[in-house]
Amino acid sequence: MWSKPWRFAEGFLIGGGLFAVGLALQLTMGPIDWSLFASPVNWIMLGLLLAFLALMFLLRKKVYAFEWMMHGHAAVASLSWALGITLVMGLLPQTREGGVTWLSQMLTFWPFVMIWTWMMVISGLATINHLLRFKVKEIPFLLNHLGVFVAIVSATLGSADVKKLQMTVSYDNPEWRALSDDEVVVEPGIAIELHQFTVDYYEDMTPKRFASDITVYTEDGKNVHGTVEVNKPLKVNGWKIYQYGYDNSLGSKSPYSVFMLVKDPWLPAVYTGIFLMLAGALCLMLFMAPKPVKKEEKV
User: Fold this and answer.
1) What pLDDT sits at residue 292?
2) Residues 120, 152: contact at Cβ < 8 Å?
């Protein structure tokens, strides 16, 4: 074990070591507080990450671990760990707070973050490697590794900049104020005016659809009219406005409607990463497609 060259066994042991270190950090420091990484801290972290990746690449001939992380054994080991811990996350209900175990709040669980950071570093090194020895046949692998890197970095560092606000709006009274998760009154820069709220019911009188007809006013002078339903948000100035609640006892006669306002400035970068991965997969299928065999002409 640990004799060169390293293969899958060493990769799985490294993953186990990262999990153990993460567990120690969880016990001593508690869960990760992502609010500490809000802009501009996350941008500084991104700069440091890119510099560290460049340094690792330059030292790859002197530090065997860095060179090994650019090979398939490392990629498979990190992907296996990442998929395994993500599967656990998918099987257990995730809560914002008050979960029974750490596994109920996986996004703030140190081992989860360290495993995915390991995979992100491997993807970053592979991207640098493919860029510097660019060949047309390696485009699919370049796109895949770059897509993984962009998606993970954007989803993790960008999570600190996600804003979620709750706004309660009464009829014909534009509301500019909203509440943050910690019950602080903030002004998001947009106002919502409620014109009509409706609820449709199934035959057993359980709600089937509830929606609000609204106008959104912005500080830069926009007036956007639309209907907001559950899972059908209205997008205005980077905000997604979701139908969230109402007075359940009054139904369609509710005097107010409650909206959830969400802004994620890093989301386009996450989508870009996903698009790059899909493009890489498509290119891989095209490059690896069997070439048609020419039929021999009869004499």
Assistant:
1) 59
2) yes
